[in-house]
Amino acid sequence: MSSGKDVAEEHRGFSRSGSPKVAEWYAEPGQKALAMKLKASLKKVIPPNYWQVMSRLRRGPLAAAVPLEIMRLLSDSTVAQIKSNLTITGKLDYRDKEILMNVDSGTQLRRLNACAKEPETVAWIETNVKCGDVFFDVGANVGAYSFVANAVTGGGATIYSFEPSFSTFSALCQNIFLNKCEGKITSLNMALGEETGLARLSYGSPVAGAAGHALGFGVGDSSSADDRVTYSQPVLCYRLDDLIREFKLPCPNHLKIDVDGGELSVLLGAEQTLANPAVRSILIEVEEQNSGAIQGILCGKGFVIAGGRRHSADLANHIFVRSYSDQQAESILRKEYR
Fold this sequence. Notes:
Blueprint: H1 4-11, H2 31-45, H3 48-57, H4 66-73, H5 76-85, E1 89-91, E2 100-102, H6 106-111, H7 114-117, H8 119-128, E3 134-138, H9 144-152, E4 158-162, H10 166-178, E5 185-188, E6 191-192, E7 197-203, E8 214-216, E9 231-238, H11 240-247, E10 254-257, H12 263-268, H13 271-275, E11 281-287, H14 291-300, E12 303-312, E13 315-322, H15 326-337
Parallel strand pairs: 3-4, 3-10, 4-5, 6-9, 10-11
Antiparallel strand pairs: 1-2, 7-8, 7-9, 11-13, 12-13
Helix pairs in contact: 2-5, 8-9
């Protein structure tokens, strides 16, 4: 049986020998910085006598938890002041350029490992996206792959990042601000699908950076009755064809589509766009149940499977590239190198 001291030290994330535990709080990227910034913010507003007590406790086994416990004892106005002064940023795990990401939650913290999570997506962007290209990131979340595309092209690509979640869209905009990408990455708070109109987005979690949301039409539907849904709201949804035509957007050269099961719906709303030879490659997350239909649509538009990576038994990223005729290829080369 473990002693009280053992339990306390394990709670802190270390065994008595000092070796890190799997769930070590301080070992996670950004968490030590979070604790230090929280401490600095607390010191500005906590009375000196309170701080003296904290100073005596900070060498104890529960030192890491002390600031969080103190937070619960403070007035609402003091907590609001601390939060307004507390900005935590981490670095995306992209090797070739520093990309800063806002970190307000454990979910956003995990997003810092996006490149390690999907190396095939990074390799696809590095191989295909060139300076002067138009890149559509559909289901951008907090924007990791939009920023990789911007880094790869030295800011020379036109990037549109689509994200319907209110909290995640806010984090995406904060990241654009952090990386000084205004004018390089255009963020759009909307969904793409097979219909243009008002849809309902049902959230698995309203936390910024979360995934697992579901999009459906019929705003009066009681989809929020699902136990897995924590919140739902109306969101603007466009067919990609309608969006490009109505707002005179450039046709994308590359599409990354990852919308938690709604990928087929996005393709059904993009028939004219997919038929445009300007679209050269697509990376799309594919659920096994939709695999045949997605392949049928894209192969019917002149694309062939060029690679991908399976993430689970029923989920994979597939990479499609356009198979050009000799005449089409010659025409494209003349436009690109004239």
